[in-house]
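Budget justification note: compute hours in this period were largely spent on complex prediction jobs such as the one shown. Inputs:
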Amino acid sequence: MTDAAALYRQELIEAGLLIPTGVDGLYGRSAVFESVVEGLERSISRMAAPDGAELMRFPPMMSRKDFLASGYLKGFPHLFGSVHCFCGNEADHRQLLEYAGEGKDFSDLLEPSGVVLTPAACYPVYPVVSRRGTLPPGGRLIDVSAYCFRHEPSLDPCRMQLFRMRENIRVGSADEVLDFREKWLQRGLKWVERLALPAVSDLANDPFFGRGGKLMAAGQRDQQLKFELLVPVTSTEKPTACLSFNYHMTHFAEIWPIHQADGELAHTGCVGFGLERLTLALLRHHGLDPTTWPQTVRGELWPDK
Ligand code: ATP
Ligand code: ZN
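Corresponding output:
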């Protein structure tokens, strides 16, 4: 995190765009900020419309059982967030209040609930697709949007703990998924150009945990599984990933069995739009007041206005 990032955060807070909560990376959003997020969502919907994706919306939590099956804990234990609840008796309750009153740790009095916080918007989709049985010919295409949680508290406004991810998810053959990813990469490049954002595409890897994680990250790069569109927001040397294009091969279809119409294991891939990061990039490049943004950019976000 750079001083420039902390400074930009301060500007956003002073302009009322982000509302601080006292927790790093956890913010309220103003009406203006939300109008940009809504504009982005609509613009993405228009871009995706010809594909006819099936729309699904999930809350920002998912089944603990499905989450544990996903393997997320292996790769990203440091980012994971779990929901725990109080299920005790009256004596436990007295102790809970006593501990809470004294500022003591009372986690022993809590039990894991059946849900965890969703780390990526596409995660709840794979088990659902699996439960539907064999894919129809041509596979499936699904559109999701959700708040996601990652425990990465930071003063960099681009690194939030709760942020929204809009995703399109392709489930089908390797060719279908790779075609989908390439199509979105090209679309994404043209789209950021219409938004007048200076973006570059690059090979990337996920932030896997620990020493073993370095190997996983290297494998992901070697196999070109992840691309990103990066936009400078508070640093030109380290631009921010605003869109991600992922190919999971058969990883998810092995965990939650998904088979293609011909019986082969399915491949999956997703394109993810970081809605807060895109908003922060637009505010950075075009100014904190969207009414003054270039007409072409406004036309892309709010074509009816
Ligand atoms: P990074 O490498 O910057 O941590 P990532 O590779 O982990 O990002 P993905 O898992 O691909 O990100 O998530 C999809 C999209 O969600 C990213 O392209 C980005 O726009 C957004 N995103 C990821 N992490 C955050 C965060 N902490 N705060 C805001 N947006 C985020
Ligand atoms: Zn995804």
